[in-house]
Amino acid sequence: MQQATAGKPKPSASSGVVPVFLRPGTIFLWIFLLVMAFLTLFPVLVAILGSFKTNAELTAGATILPKTWHFSNYVEAWKTANFSRYTWNSLFISITTTAGTLLVASMAAYGVERLRFAGRRMYVFIQAATMFISVGPLVLHPQFRLMVTLHLQTSLWGVVILLVSAHAATYFILYSFVRAIPRELDEAAKIDGSSMLGTYWRIILPLLGPGLGVSALFTFRAAWNEYIMPLVFTMSQPNLQPLTVGLSNLRYGASAAAQTHYMMAGACLSILPILLVYVFANKSFMQMTAGSIKG
Questions:
Q1: Closest CA relative to residue 224, chosen from 277, 157, 280, 265
Q2: CA 279 to chain centre
Q3: Which residues belong to the signal peptide in this entry (predicted)?
């Protein structure tokens, strides 16, 4: 009996098993992801292709691909909109806002998590309220009046200070990272004679690397794309306008004709710094997601 059964071929363990990539759930997931990727990337693709068209061809919208690739649109957009000056202004606002926000938010997160003081819960409540209560343009006038009182209404520093003050989202991101750092490190540093500020600078801040990278990307993107506030503060000083405001100068030419193709080219140029920042901050994203899985 054993010899008879031994002569028969054993059934394969994989027979009748559908490969993972052919399962209905996997196929549906891939279709969903491809559709979402298409909906996300298609407007960007249209803008890139439109930046190489003529204004008449872009307005007609007959074809997606340009009949003739006009690379000169980028040169004209750079010259017409004074892109070098506007790019410097945008970089100044974005870099200083990012550095200031990370410094203020990380110090606040460390202080609130490690210290116990009166009004601590109220402080956290106010931080959360600024995230869920959107006041938008309603506070522009009092903010501008405040900067007038400080004599900063004619400087980009006024815009930077106001953007740094809106650091609630960054605060909560870094607060969760600070809570994950063992308090034993603070106690060991205190025994070695380190002050609280020294512990923050030498121990806590280096351990916040992934959180700082992610927060820097979000903060830089928000500051780079800010439009309303720089517009209000630079109405009387065009030389201080950032790219988001300066791009509007490409809308109409000397003959008051719409120049949509130049605006497309300028918009594509303004995307490049964000892509570069993402490339450098991508490692922080990988560290953050890798650390969330254990086992």
A1: 277
A2: 12
A3: none
Is residue 98 within 8 A of residue 273, CB to CB? The reply is no
Rounded Cα distance between 287 and 211, Å, is 9
User: DSSP class of residue 153?
Assistant: T
At 65-87, the pLDDT tens digits run 888 888 888 888 787 777 888 88
How many angstroms separate the CA atoms of 3 and 85, rounded? 88
Q: Which of 275, 85, 141, 77 is nearest to 93 (CA)?
A: 85
Tell me which of 81 and 91 has the higher pLDDT. 91
Task: Please give the backbone phi and psi of residue 252, each rounded to the nearest 5 degrees, phi first.
Answer: -125, 140
For residue 160, pLDDT beyond 90: yes
Among 98, 97, 62, 90, smallest CA distance to 217 is for 98
- SS3 state of residue 252: strand
Query: Rounded to an integer, what is the distance from CA 19 to the centroid of its chain?
Result: 38
Query: How confident is the model at residue 292, as a pLDDT?
Result: 38
Tokens of 279: 């490339």
Mean pLDDT calculated for residue range 158-177:
90
Residue type, 155: S
- Collapsing DSSP to helix, strand or coil, 227 comes out as coil
Taking only the tens place, the pLDDT of each residue in 47-68 is 888 888 887 787 777 678 888 8
- State the Cα–Cα distance between residues 161 and 101, nearest whole angstrom: 9
